[in-house]
Every structure is written in C-alpha cells, then in structure tokens.
C-alpha cells in the first residue's frame, strides 16, 4: 500500500513536508523574534485520504542568531549635571534593548562614549557604565566643569551587542545633550555671632542649599563637645540654639551634609565656621589680692617702684580688654597726699615726690581703680618704705672646697649649702640675698635657691650630669641684693665664694634618639621592606645590640647590629591597624645595661578585600510566586571606609540566570533580588552574584546566593517536609517544620 504524509500545526507558510520522501523543508526564513517555537503534527494518509498512522508531534525550536541591532529607547537624551558633582555618581541613564535571545551574548549590551563635543581638555569629562548605561562625571570632570566656561555638551553614546567583545557586533548610537548648572552646594562664608546674645533662640545664622529639592540635611560634628549648640532644618537653614560664650570657645567648626531619601550622601560635606565675637562682658581682675612694693627712703623723684598687674578675660588686644589705672586713695596722707603716681595704661607706680622717711611712715596703702570703660575694679597696693641699702652681703667663708658627686645624682638634689649675711634691715630688699653662679657653669647644670628667712643658699643639681661631657666644675658664686646699693657702695670680694664639683663616672644604659618611633606604611608592602632604622647610643661608647619585644604577630624583624627594622610577614590592616612593639637596646659587654623604646606601626589600608554579603546569604520566596516579590541583600567590605561605600551589583552567567532573575540597586550598599517571572519551579537555586567595590584598584566579589522557592506557612515562613523515619511521628501527625529565615520579602 502507498502512503503519503500530511503536515499540520504552526507552519506559518514556511515549513512544509515532501509528499514522497517525508522530509521537512523550509520555503522561507524563520524569525525567532516573531516565533520561537513551532509545534507541528504529522500523520500518514492512504490514497483514499484516510489516516492510517499518527498523528505524531514535532516541536521545532528556532535558534537565535545575531540579526537584530540594539536600539536606544530614545533617539536623543537630555540630562542636567551640577558643577563639582561627585565623580561616579550617575545623573542620567541611557537604555537600549535588543530583540535577540537575552540568554545569549547576542543581547548582551555594552555602552560606550564615542564622541564628546566640545572637548576642551585632554581628559574625558564624562564616563559611562558599560553595563548599566549610567552616565556620570569623571574625576577631571568633577573638577573642571564650569557653566561659565561651557554650559552644554553633546555626547555620542554607542551601544554594541555581543558584550562589545566582537568586531561583528551590531551597534546603535544616540545623542546625549548635557547642561551644566552652577553647583548650589557651596560652603557659606564664615559666620560671626556676638557672644551672650539676649535674643530669643534658636537664631538663624546661615543656610546651605542642595541643587534639587528633597534632600535631607544634617550637621556633623568635627570635634566632640559637651553641648553642640547648632541645628539645621530641612530647608538647609542652620540655627544657633543657645547664647555662646567667647571665653568658653571662640571658633566652632563642623560640617553640613545633604543625603537622599535612602540616607546616602549626595556630595561631600560642607565645612561651616562660626566665629564668636567678643563683647565687653568681663570685669578687670587684680592679679593679687594685695600687691606689695618696696621703695628705699632715698629714692628720687620719678623712680619706678613696681607695676600693678590686672587681667581681663575679654579678647586680647581689643578695646574690650584695654585697662586703665587711676589712684583713688592713699593712706596715710603724710607728709602729703599724692606721693605716688601711676601710669594710666601700664599700671607702673612712680614717685611724685622725694619726701619718703621710714622713721615717719614705714608703709602706705594705696587703692587703685582699674577700668575697661564698662566695668571697674579696685585693687589694693601696699608700699613698704625700707632702709637704704648701704651694706653688702658677706660670705662666711670664701672657699667651700671640692665636692664629689655621682653623675646619676638626681636633678633637684642639694649637694652643698652656703651662707652669706647682710647687715641691712632684715626681711627687706636691702638685706635679702640672691646667689648667682658667675663662672664655671655655662650649661647651667647647677642652681642656687635661697631660704628667705635665713638667707642660706642651697646648691642643687639643675640638669642631668654627664661625666663624658664634663667631669669637673670650678664655680664662682656672687651674693647680691635685689635693691640697688646706695651711691658710693660696691660689691667686693667679700660677696664672692668658690667651690668645685667633681663628677664620678657611672655606667649608663644606652639612650635611644627617641622614646617613641612612629611609622605609617601600606599593608601591601612586600615582605622584607625596610621600615625604619632606630639608633641608640651608649654614653661610654660600648657596642649596642637590638632586639624586639611584644612582636606578637611576628610581622617585624630587626637587624641586631644596625637597628634596621624590616617587615617579616605580610601585614593585614583588617587584623590590626596599630601594631606596637618594644625595641630593646643592650650593651654588648654588659647585658644588664639596656633601655627600651616604643615602635608604633600605623598600617594604612589598601583595597585588598573583595566585597561580601552582610545580609542575604540565604533567601527564600513563597511558591507559587507572585509578581513584584523581592528580597533585600546587603554588601560590606572589610577594608577601611573613608567615605560611604559604593558597591555595584550584577548577576553572573549561567543557564537561565538573567532570564529568570534580576538585581536592582537600592543604594550604595543594598540591592533587591527578584524573580523576573512567576514560572519558576519549587526548588533550591544557586545564583551567581558579582559585587564590585569602588576601591583603587576596584575588587570583585563572586558569590553564590542560595535561594529557596518553597511552600510557605500562613506566617510566610518557608515550609520543609520532614522525612518519615522509624521512631518519628507519621506524616499525618507532623506535616513539617518551619525554617525561619530573617529576610524581608517585598510584596
């Protein structure tokens, strides 16, 4: 019997079957973008047209070829960028689509800036994310864009399929018109506020503006204060909340920030400076409750007696702290009033008459008015009239011999006592004795202090002695009075004495050039890098040997002889960013003689840690899926974050990954993962995720997200059946367990 085939189904006028051989053939071209799958049936008929076999199903999957160029959604884009905007922050997105199979490279798009009109600089002012089409300013553009110089730019943006990796890629272009606007986000001028204002607070003092409405403003303290007397409203107006006191703090420095709704900073913080202006709100203050001067009874007209000192807490070198002095009372007024005058600006007392007589009046009490033109203070002065200084100090002996002391004698220790006497009136400037070393002590290693009651002198060590520098001192001491001698009387050899000091050598420990050595170094330096050379000297000249202590991580080693410190292992700032060790210097021949210095290694960060997930390693969605569900993930980075981190999220390659899933950015650290359709099966999925940071150089983290599509309980928790094992409840008794996953699922 003879049979012939008959074809039916989705032939679309293109697919036919040969009646004799049964071969399927095409009489035209298939187009995957119009129809991806053709479902056909074939059956065998006899000559009478009756079915004898079949029907049999045939499915034809049309394979994609790269026959569709990408197309931009718009033929022209318009965007606005603000002057000095942060580099890398997108201000415009261009988007293209490709009708080819999205699971193949045929539809993987690559964006690039082809031309840049005008281009007044050697560097590109704009950049584009090759994957997302996000356009932002480059580093040079952030600095150089200026609407006064060039307000508009035209970018020719091209998009290629095949991920831009092939010369055969199909392309499309679009124009992007960019307008540069003046950046309103500028630091305001320094604000000046008068202190102790009596106006109602808060008081508006300045304002900052973000370029567009909707920004959230905040203030950031630069230094920690017990009270921070400033606030900002959501119009960017900055207020002072309480009266300020210049004497408490004269200058405040802090920052104003602008953030978007997600809490991400829109640009760099602006520095705000507030200067507190002085007002005259502090009275003069007498330095002493009672100021005492001495004057000899034979002093002449105009002689200086002393200076009255007063202070004012208002700003120095201003009219608010300018003080003027005036004598308002003298007691007694014998032999006459106004015996003394005071310099109005300096407060220096002078004699207006040479009428002082100790036998008539031995002391005067003077009251002085000190004013700053707003406040007035009264200061009391006592002036003692003393006998004339006509007697010189006389030493009890002229030679005190030689004194032997160890070179490690402590500073401040008394090594010798000396005595001179003066026959003038006791307890006055004429009889008080001052001892001074006139010769033999150029470095001032010794000092002599006087007991004011007995005039006894105590010779003390003033500086650390060094046998190697000087082993003997021959000292000449002179005794004088603070009051000048009367005419015709002079100091002579009776007011001079001599003594010697012999310093005995003591074996001293080595001395480092510094007590603390500090070095800053990047964590990625090679092992064996020279970090620093430390140096210690032994006063006796012995050889020094160096060792390290508290080198807990063995990151460093030291050359025993040279003191050179090298890295001995890789450094890791994330493990320890301040590495402290002790350096010991020991005398080679005297092991007991050693000293220690501190070595601080501050390790600076490099971008050596790829991003990782802080939240969202294990996600789930309830089956059956509903449109719009999504789960939040959060990225972090162990490297030092000087500014807010900026991560980019993308899906890796894999079968049906990009056709089944998508990832969308929330902010610099968070993103949403969501299914692209609701036809996903109930099972566990492993989704490759790529996270890039914005370090230099940038690093990429490759992760596998474990996503479970599962049946859920009424509470929205993933439900997993428990297998029935001996000794366990039956399926009817225990239907399952709930797996609690702390994750937000968008609905």
UniProtKB/TrEMBL annotation:
Subcellular location: Cell membrane
Superkingdom to which the source organism belongs: Eukaryota
An example molecular function term from Gene Ontology annotations: calcium ion binding
CDD domains: Cadherin_repeat
Transmembrane segments: 727-745
InterPro entries in the record: Cadherin (IPR039808), Cadherin-like_dom (IPR002126), Cadherin-like_sf (IPR015919), Cadherin_CS (IPR020894)
Domain Cadherin intervals: 4-72, 73-286, 287-395, 405-512, 513-613, 629-731
GTP-binding keyword on record: no
GO biological process, one term: calcium-dependent cell-cell adhesion via plasma membrane cell adhesion molecules
Descriptive protein name: Cadherin 17
Organism: Terrapene triunguis (Three-toed box turtle)
Lineage: Eukaryota, Metazoa, Chordata, Craniata, Vertebrata
Gene: CDH17
């Amino acid at each position: 019997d003879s049979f012939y085939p008959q074809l039916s189904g989705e032939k679309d006028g293109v697919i036919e079957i040969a009646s004799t051989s049964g071969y399927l053939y095409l009489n035209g071209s298939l187009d995957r973008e119009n129809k991806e799958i053709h479902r056909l049936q074939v059956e065998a008929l006899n000559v009478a047209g009756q079915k004898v076999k079949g029907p049999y199903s045939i499915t034809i999957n049309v394979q994609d070829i790269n026959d569709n160029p990408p197309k931009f959604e718009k033929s022209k884009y318009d965007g606005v960028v603000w002057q000095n905007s942060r580099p890398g922050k997108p201000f415009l997105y261009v988007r293209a689509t490709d009708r080819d199979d999205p699971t193949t490279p045929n539809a993987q798009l690559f964006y690039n800036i082809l031309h840049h009109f005008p281009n007044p600089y050697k560097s590109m002012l704009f950049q584009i994310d090759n994957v997302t089409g996000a356009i932002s300013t480059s580093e040079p553009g952030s600095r150089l864009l200026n609407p006064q110089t060039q307000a508009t730019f035209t970018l020719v943006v091209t998009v290629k399929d095949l991920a831009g990796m092939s010369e055969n890629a199909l392309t499309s272009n679009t124009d992007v018109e960019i307008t540069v606007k003046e950046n309103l986000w500028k630091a305001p001028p320094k604000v000046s506020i008068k202190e102790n204002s009596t106006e109602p607070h808060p008081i508006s003092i300045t304002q900052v503006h973000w370029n567009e409405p909707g920004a959230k403003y905040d203030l950031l303290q630069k230094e920690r204060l017990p009270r921070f007397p400033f606030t900002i409203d959501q119009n960017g107006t900055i207020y002072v909340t309480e009266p300020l006191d210049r004497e408490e703090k004269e200058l405040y420095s802090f920052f104003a920030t602008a953030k978007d709704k997600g809490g991400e900073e829109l640009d760099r913080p602006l520095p705000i400076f507030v200067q507190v202006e002085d007002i005259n709100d502090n009275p003069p203050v007498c330095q002493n409750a009672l100021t005492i001067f001495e004057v000899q009874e034979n002093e002449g007209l105009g002689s200086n007696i002393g200076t009255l000192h007063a202070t004012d807490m208002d700003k120095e070198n201003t009219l608010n702290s300018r003080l003027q002095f005036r004598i308002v009372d003298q007691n007694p007024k014998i032999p006459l009033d106004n015996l003394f005058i005071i310099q109005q600006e300096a407060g220096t007392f002078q004699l207006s008459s040479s009428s002082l007589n100790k036998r008539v009046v031995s002391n005067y009490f003077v009251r002085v008015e000190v004013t700053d033109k707003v406040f007035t203070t009264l200061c009391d002065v006592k002036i003692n009239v003393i006998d004339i200084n006509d007697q010189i100090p006389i030493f009890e002996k002229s030679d005190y011999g030689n004194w032997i002391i160890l070179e490690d004698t402590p500073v401040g220790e008394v090594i010798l006592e000396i005595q001179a006497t003066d026959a003038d009136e006791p307890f006055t400037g004429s009889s008080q004795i001052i001892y001074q070393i006139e010769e033999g002590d150029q470095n001032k290693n010794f000092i002599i202090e006087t007991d004011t009651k007995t005039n006894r002198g105590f010779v003390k060590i003033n500086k650390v002695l060094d046998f190697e520098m000087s082993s003997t001192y021959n000292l000449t001491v002179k005794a004088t009075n603070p009051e000048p001698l009367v005419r015709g009387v002079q100091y002579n050899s009776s007011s001079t004495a001599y003594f010697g000091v012999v310093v005995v050598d003591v074996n001293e420990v080595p001395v480092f050039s510094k007590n603390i050595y500090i070095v800053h170094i990047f964590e990625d330096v090679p092992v064996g890098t020279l970090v620093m050379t430390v140096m210690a000297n032994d006063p006796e000249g012995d050889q020094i040997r160096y060792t390290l202590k508290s080198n807990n991580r063995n990151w460093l080693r030291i050359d025993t002889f040279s003191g050179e410190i090298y890295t001995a292992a890789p450094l890791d700032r994330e493990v320890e960013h301040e590495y402290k060790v002790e350096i010991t210097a020991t005398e080679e021949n005297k092991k007991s003689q050693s000293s220690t210095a501190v070595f601080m290694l501050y390790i600076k960060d490099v971008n050596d840690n790829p991003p990782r997930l802080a939240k969202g390693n294990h996600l789930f969605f309830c089956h059956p899926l509903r449109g719009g569900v999504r789960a939040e993930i959060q990225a972090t980075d162990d490297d030092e974050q000087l500014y807010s981190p900026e991560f980019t999220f993308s899906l890796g390659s894999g079968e049906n990954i990009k056709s089944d899933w998508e990832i969308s950015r929330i902010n610099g650290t968070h993103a949403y993962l969501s299914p692209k359709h609701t036809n996903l099966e109930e099972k566990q999925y492993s989704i490759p995720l790529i996270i890039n940071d914005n370090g230099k150089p940038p690093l990429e983290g490759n992760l596998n997200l474990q996503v479970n599509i599962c049946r859920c309980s009424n509470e929205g928790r993933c439900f997993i059946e428990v297998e029935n094992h001996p000794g366990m409840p039956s399926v009817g008794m225990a239907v399952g367990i709930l797996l609690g996953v702390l994750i937000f699922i968008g609905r």
